[in-house]
Amino acid sequence: MPAKGKHRRPKSLSLSRGFAVAGTGGAALALPLIGAAGAHAAGVPAAAPAVTPVVAPQAPLALPSAPAVAAHAAPSVYTVVPGDYLSKIAAERHLAGGWEQLYADNREAVGGNPSLIHPGLKLHLGGPGEPAPSEAEAEAAPAPAPEVETDAQQAAPKPVRKHAEQAAPAQPEAAAEPEAQAPAAPQSAAGFVAPVGGGISTQYKVAGAMWSSGYHTGVDFIAAMGTTVKAVGAGTVVSAGWSGSYGNEIVIRHADGKYSQYAHLSQLSVSSGQSVTAGQAIGLSGSTGNSTGPHLHFEIRTTPSYGSDMDPIAYLRAKGASL
Length: 323
Fold this sequence. Notes:
By secondary structure, the protein is an alpha+beta fold. The protein has helices at 2-5, 11-47, 62-71, 86-93, 98-105, 107-110, 135-140, 151-155, 164-167, 312-318, and strands spanning 77-79, 122-124, 200-202, 219-221, 228-230, 235-242, 248-254, 259-268, 275-276, 281-285, 296-301, 309-310.
């Protein structure tokens, strides 16, 4: 029976050790289960899209308003180039009111005739009297994008360029500025007249040794001492004074480029550069210079100088003078 007297380890110890191992193993096995459960629990709120609020991005308000400010900027200034005319500029720029409004806005710069615009002229394309942008503003402004023609625009026929006087309708005569003209010498209502009232004593081109040219270069009118001598037509006095054998003489240039000469005068009433009218008294007859007695030596010349004479009587009659 001695064998029965041996004590054996209680089974409880084995069970306890087994439980401990099992407990240790259970703990080891429980950790991944708890982790899996935790992972599963953490995935629930992430899978619910309704929990996270969504905020839509908003564009700044200043951006869409920028083009509107640029659209209401000061009107642009256009510089005229060769070949431009108002109706062409208005059509190409699509200006409201056409060339008439463009002309009205720039009347002071263009002047009375809308057809007369010159290269380099500055035109306001938006309103009258508005100043052009400064150089700093012009440099800061973005350069306009180049225009690209569409297929339809390229296929469309191009307008034929016309001259400025054809493009812009003629304005009323009252609005047009008169062209500057040189003032003409005053004219007499009677036209050309004879220099004195007496007859002719010596005709034109009478030959003789007493004249240096071999013939008489003018006509001699009968005129007593101190007879009033008149300008035969309107013109300008070229010379008035002493002239050698002609004594006191006056030379007048007329509008047709011809010259009248009055010699042997006793008195001069006009001076060089003075304008005279037909029939105006210019001096008194006499016998100064190379003269045999009182009379008036009269010539018509193509130049103011001696030697360019022409028939004085034929000239005066062609001008309507009564001789």
